[in-house]
Design a protein that fits this description.
Blueprint (H helix, E strand, L loop, with lengths): L1 H20 L14 H16 L3 H4 L1 H9 L10 E2 H12 L2 H14 L2 H26 L13 H9 L2 H35 L3 H16 L3 H29 L4 H12 L10 H20 L6 H5 L2 E2 L5 H30 L10 H13 L1 H34 L4 H21 L3 H41 L20 H6 L3
Parallel strand pairs: 1-2
Length: 498
């Protein structure tokens, strides 16, 4: 009976995943809805790119200028714009960057990397829209850390609390629980490969390390992320640059291979060009979204917490746009370069994601490569776990209300710690499949919401650009929610007035 119910549940989940994410035959599938999220994700990104007049290119330099002042403006022990960016990067930079890229290349060929790039480029504008909305609709909290995100702008902007609750539930399943198990599983596999440490021991160590951070609340998560993420990201990028520079004569050919494979040119001789494109697109877009999270509705939860400097919601939009660039176009490209230049990918042999990255790096620095990847994935995935927890706490509080949230949050903390240990010692493909379904559903809900609310975000962008053109300094730029019809909620005025 139990097997029958489990089989029925798995078949429903698998069908839902195939509709949302597509499968290897989606270009020729009779069901026109296969890969629905692919079309909505790319379509929304293209729309936002045009609507913002190619903001990711026009304001590319401005993103970096804001980064220089992003640690200013924090008040009352709150979270700075820089710390909010690091929290979102903590969630972004993890399994997807080291193991996910390897899986995409193994399943979809080098061309998958190209589609990861495309997803990130159009996703930068999507990230700007959703993060700007998160800041615009954020609400104050008694711990001096703002709350906000898709659940808040769906309820306040669209007036659909039931849809906001549905989004929050999907996020709790995907980020609060399942993906934390994915991250701990990756850490356990990498440390077992590098040091021979039993997975159960790694699970216990992770629980001990994660517990004080999650029990410290959202401010604790931001502080840890702000210190760990920049250091590990810089070290990993420097290592990738070493690999590229020592193999620079082969680097142009590797880039050419990525582009050719993306359009099936490498498979054309075998007569399977369509299948090759489908493989590359599906794996590239899916892993790209999992890595940079643009449009998924997760990063806006971090974006909303910031006390931005300048004091305007568009600032965090720019900062999170920079986060997508750093995650995929820098860190994922670093991993892809290491793997492709190493030549270790063998489609005829089953290769695990993180072990493939370790194997590739060991071609350049020997056993130290295996150890370095294990250390890198530990810190990247550890920070992902605590950032994912923060997303879950914020949405759980949204569902239950601030006054009734204490008991629910305490239970949730123990559930997260339990999932961290279970993920380290077990292989739960059905759970991860369910997480893919939850992630896909929350992305679809968020994308529809930000498309409808995009006129608000675009007006906020124009307001910010107007003040920049007037020559105002960072301390002079201000945001007045009363200028926006949809933002005249009392909580929003409280969040945007001193």
């Amino acid at each position: 009976m139990n097997e029958g119910v489990a089989g029925w549940f798995n078949s429903i989940v698998n069908y839902g995943v195939s509709i949302i994410w597509g499968n290897n035959d989606w270009l020729i599938a009779s069901n026109p809805w296969y890969g629905l999220l692919m079309f909505v994700l790319i379509g929304a990104g293209l729309y936002f790119t045009v609507a913002t007049r190619f903001i990711q290119f026009r304001h590319f330099g401005h993103m970096w200028q804001l980064l220089r002042v992003s640690n200013q403006g924090r008040k009352d022990g709150g979270i700075s714009s820089f710390e909010a960016l690091m929290t979102s990067l903590a969630a972004r930079v993890g399994t997807g960057n080291l193991a996910g890229v390897a899986i995409a290349i193994y399943l979809g060929g080098p061309g998958a990397v190209f589609w990861m790039w495309m997803t990130a480029i159009v996703g930068m504008s999507t990230s700007f829209i959703e993060s700007t909305l998160a800041q615009a609709y954020k609400v104050p909290h008694n711990d001096n850390v703002y709350r906000g995100g898709p659940a808040y702008y769906i309820e306040k902007g669209l007036g659909k609390r039931w849809l906001a609750v549905f989004f929050s539930l999907c996020l709790l399943v995907a980020f609060g629980l399942a993906f934390n198990g994915v991250q701990s599983n990756t850490i356990a596999q990498a440390t077992n490969e590098a040091f021979g440490i039993p997975t159960w021991m790694t699970g216990l160590i992770l629980v001990v390390l994660v517990a004080p951070v999650v029990f410290g609340g959202l401010r604790s998560v931001a502080r840890i992320a702000g210190k760990v993420v920049p250091v590990m990201a810089i070290l990993y990028i420097l290592l990738a640059l070493y690999v590229i520079l020592t193999n620079f004569s082969e680097f142009p050919a590797a880039i050419a291979l990525i582009v050719k494979s993306a359009f099936g040119f490498e498979q054309a001789a075998g007569g399977v060009i369509g299948y090759g494109i489908a493989q590359a697109m599906i794996n590239g877009i899916k892993r790209g979204l999992f890595s940079n999270e643009a449009g998924m509705g997760s990063a806006p939860n971090a974006a909303a917490t910031a006390k931005s400097h300048p004091d305007h919601p568009a600032v965090q939009g720019f900062m999170q746009m920079l986060g997508v660039f750093l995650d995929t176009l820098v860190i994922c490209t670093a991993t892809a370069s290491i793997i492709i230049l190493s030549g270790v990918v063998d489609p005829s042999v089953e290769q695990e994601g993180i072990q493939l990255t370790q194997l590739a790096l060991s071609q350049y620095v020997g056993d130290m490569g295996v150890i370095f990847v294990a250390i890198a994935i530990f810190f990247f995935s550890f920070t992902s776990i605590i950032a994912n927890y923060s997303y879950g706490e914020s949405n759980l509080e949204f569902i239950s209300g601030e006054k009734n949230a204490k008991v629910m949050i305490m239970i949730f903390r123990f559930m997260v710690l339990g999932m961290v240990f279970i993920g380290a010692v077990a292989s739960l493909p059905a759970i991860w499949n369910f997480a893919d379904l939850s992630m896909g559903l929350m992305a679809l809900v968020n994308l529809v919401a930000i498309i409808i609310l995009s006129p608000v975000a675009l007006r906020i962008l124009r307001d910010y650009e107007r003040q920049i053109k007037e020559g105002k300094t960072a301390d002079q730029i201000k945001f007045n929610p009363d200028d926006f019809v949809k933002l005249k909620d009392e909580a929003n005025r409280d969040a945007w007035t001193d």
